[in-house]
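Recall the central idea of this unit: under ordinary conditions, the amino acid sequence of a chain determines the structure it adopts. In this exercise we apply that idea directly, starting from the sequence alone.
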Amino acid sequence: MSHPQAKVHRMFELLEPIATVTYSAVPNEAFLALGMRNYWDGYFAGRAAPLGLAPAEVVHAVFYNFADGEVARHIPWVWGKITPQEAIAVRERGSATALRHRIGELADSPDLVRIADLAIRAAVSAPTEGRALYAGLRALDVPEEPVARLWHAATLLREHRGDGHNAVLLAHGIGGTDAHVLLALSLGMRAEEFGRIHHLPKAQLAAVVDGLRGRGLVDEAGGFTDAGRETKQRIEALTDELAAPAYDVLSADELEELIAGLEPIAAAAQAADD
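Accordingly, the structure predicted from this sequence is:
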């Protein structure tokens, strides 16, 4: 069955703080303890591990939004310290620990078992065609422990949506750095203030902004034009549309139950710090 787009987008909002515990202190420290040199070594080892020993060029293509050369600083170097199988285990263990820490007593609630099961049903039901990272994650074993199970479901659904998002960006001629500029503007920030791209050489970032200005998406002052804002909104709406098939396996009542059950968990995950 097809669910309203607002519900699909709400799932994205609720899953994001659950999935992104992966990029917090506890998993990072676990990777550093195994010989990673910095945060980004752990990031690439953990996130790229479902792709196996794929070369930097492939990881760059699948991740889509890193600047040229950024992936190659970490892949394949990390595979000299840790195998993809080990990275998957470290990531899952560290992420489940971080999530449990953040959500406190909710971790032991009987409701969490039911919510994790509903989320997993959705997470393993979507088509994999054209979604390389999601397909890699789908090939992994689903954890039994409920908190790890919920984290795994959130990660699957996040990367499923992300693979679709990249397809939409590609179809609109929006490159990876372009996408970061548009995201920064949608958050009311200038491109050079945005965390994911502020480290890029000024000339490189200026060239990206100039390219978007030349397409009529960015104005002279470096903000959105109406066309730029509409393009960003259209990309988000199409991304939600492509994410929707993951939830077709759930009835309307089950999706409502999942959203209601995730709300306190997501709120706790967002409010807490490691």
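The chain has a mean pLDDT of 96.
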